[in-house]
What we know:
With 288 residues, the protein is of the alpha+beta class. The protein has 11 helices and 6 strands. Strands 1-2-3-4-5-6 form a 6-stranded antiparallel β-sheet. The protein is elongated, with a radius of gyration of 24 Å.
Amino acid sequence: MIDMIAALQPLLVGAVLLWSARLKLFSRHAAVTAHRSGLVVLLGERRALPAYRVLGVVELTLGAALLLPPTSRLEAVAATALAVGFLAYLGYTRRVAPTASCGCLSAQPTPVSGRSLLRAGLLVAAGALATTGSAGWFDALADRPVAGGVVLLAEAAAVVALSPELDGTWLLPLRRLRARLTHPLRGGSGVPLLATVQQLQLSDAYRRVAALLRSDVREHWDADGWRFAAYAARYQGRTVTAVFAVPLADPEPERVRVALVDDTTGQTLLSLAGTAPPAAGRLTVVPA
């Protein structure tokens, strides 16, 4: 089993390298992505894009070599060394430029996180394991197609799960689907969304988090006499969703509540809840 897993690692690492090379060499956003990355700090503004392109050529060449059987031990060693370089680069970027983007697998501006470092560590482990393989990945899949497919799917899922820049492709749609299933969009309240937004903007809760918001209303639903409105936001360097609860009956801005929910973990980071009668209009901060 270990031999089969080792034989499959060049396929995984090669696919990741080719995906990364696609962004660096063929994306129309490559220049913007390069200048948002840690390469600017490491090499300077002028050298960032050329270095980004060169890295893409290296990834394309090595990724293609790993995918074309047979895979030599030298190719696996080179892939491991490149993954170690990625890990060192990401660690350096996170320390000296925490707001810089990774620029790895997507043009989405996403700062380097612990997940990014874990992904690089996974590629280091996969490359090191590939150096011990004695068979090619094609032969390993032909011999044990079901087991090999399960291993590859699990590893690919791990790479995607450890890639914050890909959250918009799979994680956020899942969260929106869960929101729809848990709080179905229901009509019949007769209250226009504009009236809800106007009441919302008069509230202390809104004023306290307004500087954090990065969008207009993205979703809304009604439940139990409340209208819930979701906004994209940034809080303490994290991408979050600000969910406001607004009374549907009489306008009562003092009762408006808001929760900041981490888009990655689903954790409620901060909650502002109306606790006093409408005449008092005070809100209490409740740490998550």
